[in-house]
Design a protein that fits this description.
Two copies of one chain form a homodimer.
Chain A (H helix, E strand, L loop, with lengths): L1 E8 L3 H12 L1 H8 L1 E9 L3 H6 L7 E2 L3 H4 L4 E6 L7 H10 L3 E4 L2 H17 L4 E2 L10 H7 L6 E7 L2 H13 L3 H10 L8 H4 L2 H15 L8 E3 L7 H9 L2 E11 L3 E11 L11 E8 L3 E8 L3 H17 L24 E11 L4 H11 L4 E6 L7 E8 L2 E2 H12 L4 E10 L2
Parallel strand pairs in A: 1-2, 1-4, 2-3, 4-5, 5-6, 8-10, 10-17
Antiparallel strand pairs in A: 7-9, 7-11, 9-10, 11-12, 13-15, 13-16, 13-17, 14-15
Helix pairs in contact in A: 1-13, 5-6, 6-11, 8-9, 14-15
């Protein structure tokens, strides 16, 4: 039987989950996949954590050369997170001819071309199923199940923290700040929640998935990003009246050109993504031949993400030569491949004073910038004689919308543009 | 560049779709996967169809030896459907060392061990992603993304015809017979709809998916099967009142023992499978580490199913040796692996005469057989003084339920047991 040594860089949450699966399922994997996978070294300074996991202290150290110089170790799994020392250690391992498996979306999305180059020069593999949407096998789906398709669009709920917060705001009417605090208490959100709530985490995944799907590198600076911290329960409720569910989506499209963005979106209630609740994730992909596909599951957690790492380890161990994707030949980012601006439908809430003729004035301003209106809801005035008007537009460009809103803000009687949320079908 | 010759056995709907993808995407696949795939022979007697598809008549014949004797043809895709001549032609191709890709669920579920044996003896590959749920890559997910999991259950909407019929019955209140006629007119159902509406098609897929997931052969005769032809709009509507959506599911579970069944099921509205509408399919899988996953997409059609065939062709072409699954060593079916009977919650509609004490009598009969009741809805009497009582039970065994119903049918005042539908969480 083929025997393959594995090393783990870090045994925090996902590293620990991976250790647990690889040890508990060792016989099971031998039986089913015909490969004996042994964890031969663990790079970790927290020896208490290693003891908790029952790791033999003889295989624990803080010296990467215990891994790079061991010829029996063929595969290295990285769980440090962040850029350094993850990046440097991965490079050292690749240079030693080890295949690398990583769940590190930030480091990977920022350094993919460099890592790929080094992997190729050293005949090493580079696998990253766990970097996007935890246990959901979306990377495999894109690379091994959709080869006969031009992927035309990706829409993903790829961040559990924000989906938990938005689901609670929607189901229970609790405000953003309270939901965030609860998410932190439950361990769904970090003490510094920026990476999740401001859409950075979703942006990293958007970059990786889009690059793989469109076979062209989609770097972070080509992705428009907006988080959920400005979202009000009020707008979620008006959205419900209109038949919409609010989600933070990573969206990218690849028709003539590529556009990529991360922002809150109103989706029709009937859209399969609308029923993805709580900390679950899902990615909705359209291929020109297969049509719409959706992949749903847990996007985070020790065992779900560990499960994705283990699938990559077994895949890597089974291959005689590393898996390559042709798109990676395209190292340069070509500005001409990307849309300069995107088009969307919009939900706009404008607060106005309760004076006659105000709806006509605002409507005229939209018309002036060719923003065509699909639906309007005018609500009763509140105590202070201010009232919200909600507009849902037809497809228009972001720049037309922004120009119209600037104009509208100058109208006498308009208090503020209180909310702007994009609408997708 | 690696060059691989492919032959197509039949170019009907899916065969035609596959031909179209392989020819239109030939350059695209060369670029991305580094393999030049050429359709070198088509076995088809309908030359008009071949002309429609623009197939060069020089590569069309009805002689299988034009394929088996051509050393440049490495992969054969079978689209005949049915058992013969599909089975015999596949065996001839495997014996000639060709890898075989098939979408033929009936033939495959019935003959898998034999075909696998011959494939192994001749160092040929055997691929069947397209046999289950068309374009949805559920086979790949089970084999290449869940290796670190014991798969514990599968619940699938795996038949588009029945899902279309049940969706329409539910959304529009149209009766079964009318929906079936419309499905036939739209080409969603065959003139003889038995394979779909009586659950045979779902049973074939249940066998293939369960065998693969549980690494033990689950033959057709171990699968309980019940179709949708007895379903009444009335019960779908009562189910709605209870918060349920009706679906035809292929269900299998693998805790202590394996149980497998195909029948209509009431699912809670919040279950992700409940929002899978119309001709879409979805498979909900639970792994002990990854938790719940769902795979959603088009389960039929020329291009979606062709897309799955093409992914198998590319996978087969890229491998230097055929892919094997350890479970297939288990050729014998062991009765001890299977549950003798299954447990479920039940929805029961009983028609009774409007006489006093009838509810108590029926309830007592359930109690006698240890069937515990979770909810009861008693409706007003109709004109003829008969009325429906709906019971939803807690978990109970099928045999207890059947015994209770037999008893209940004998109660004076009970007109009939009008509906029995299983309920899943």
């Amino acid at each position: 039987m083929k025997k393959v040594g594995v090393a783990l860089l870090g045994v925090g949450v996902v590293g620990g989950g991976t250790y647990e699966i690889l040890t508990k399922k060792r016989e099971y994997i031998k039986q089913n996949d015909g490969i004996d996978i042994e964890v031969m070294h663990v790079l970790e300074r927290n020896t208490t954590r290693c003891d908790e996991l029952g790791i033999n202290p003889a295989i624990v150290s803080t010296d990467i050369t215990n891994i790079t110089k061991n010829p029996d170790i063929k595969i290295v799994c990285e769980f440090f997170g962040g850029i350094e020392p993850a990046r440097s250690f991965i490079i050292e391992c690749l240079k030693a001819g080890k295949s690398v498996v990583t769940a590190n979306k930030e480091m990977f999305s920022k350094n993919w071309p460099e890592l790929e180059q080094i992997a190729r020069e050293n005949n090493a593999g580079l696998y990253f199923e766990a970097s996007c949407v935890g246990g959901v096998p979306i990377i495999h789906a894109l690379t091994d199940s959709m080869q006969g398709n031009k992927v035309q669009s990706i829409k993903g709920i790829v961040n559990g923290t924000t989906n938990y917060i938005l689901s609670r705001m929607s189901d229970e009417g609790v405000d953003y700040a309270t939901c965030l605090k609860d998410a932190q208490a439950l361990g769904y959100a970090e003490a510094n929640p920026t990476a999740d709530v401001d859409g950075f985490d979703a942006m990293y995944k958007c970059s990786i998935l889009s690059s793989l799907a469109y076979k062209k590198r989609v770097p972070l600076d080509k992705i428009y990003r907006e988080g959920i911290s400005q979202i009000k329960v009020e707008d979620i409720n008006y959205g419900k009246e209109l038949g919409y569910t609010l989600k933070l989506l990573a969206i990218s499209k690849n028709y003539d050109k590529i556009e990529a963005r991360v922002h809150p979106v109103f989706l029709p209630n009937e859209h399969p993504l609308s029923s993805v609740k709580g900390s679950f994730n899902a990615v909705y992909v359209n291929g020109d031949n297969v049509g719409d596909l959706m992949f749903y599951g847990r996007g985070a957690g020790a065992l779900p993400t560990g499960s994705a790492i283990v699938s990559d380890v077994i895949f890597a161990a089974a291959q005689d030569k590393p898996r390559r994707f042709a798109w990676e030949e395209v190292k340069e980012v070509n500005d001409a491949d990307f849309e300069k601006e995107f088009s969307s439908k919009y939900y706009v809430r404008i607060t106005v004073k309760d004076v006659s003729g105000i709806l006509a004035k605002v409507s005229a301003a939209f018309e002036k910038f060719n923003v065509s209106i699909n639906a309007v809801i005018q609500k009763d005035a509140k105590d202070n004689a201010e009232l919200p008007i909600i507009f849902v537009t037809h497809l228009t460009t972001e720049s037309s919308m922004q120009a119209a809103l600037k104009d509208i803000e100058g109208i006498d009687g308009v208090v503020e543009v209180a909310a702007l949320i994009r609408v997708e079908d």
